[in-house]
Design goal:
0% strand, mainly alpha, Cell division protein FtsL
Length: 117
């Protein structure tokens, strides 16, 4: 009886060691993947900063004014004035679609309760 108990204890310890070994490698793989994702996030943040700087550079008022002046004949853009704004109540929004009609049962087909004896 003692030898069976010792054998079960040894097998339990070996099983737990195998489980801990697998969990350790799974944890190391997850940590490596997490560090890769962090590097990608840092690279994307740097790229976002560059794109914001480019947008600010391209969106300068003096540059836009020059572009409007160069393309006035084609675009007909004029500066925005206070009298050009309108109230939102004057905008004609599209009407919402009508609600779907409920399907009516065909009177020719019997209901399941009518077919049972």
């Amino acid at each position: 009886m003692r030898s069976l108990t010792y054998l079960l204890c040894v097998l339990t310890v070996m099983g737990l060691a195998f489980w801990a070994y697998r969990e350790n490698y799974a944890t190391q793989a997850s940590i490596g993947e997490m560090s890769q994702v962090r590097r990608e996030i840092a690279a994307l943040r740097d790229e976002l900063g560059i794109l914001r700087a480019e947008w600010a550079y391209l969106n300068r008022p003096d540059r836009l004014r020059e572009l409007v002046d160069l393309n006035f004949e084609r675009l007909q853009l004029v500066p925005l004035e206070a009298g050009q704004q309108m109230d939102l109540r004057h905008i004609d929004y599209p009407k919402p679609p009508p609600p779907p009609e409920p399907e009516l049962a065909d009177p020719a087909t019997p209901s399941p309760t009518e077919t049972q004896p």
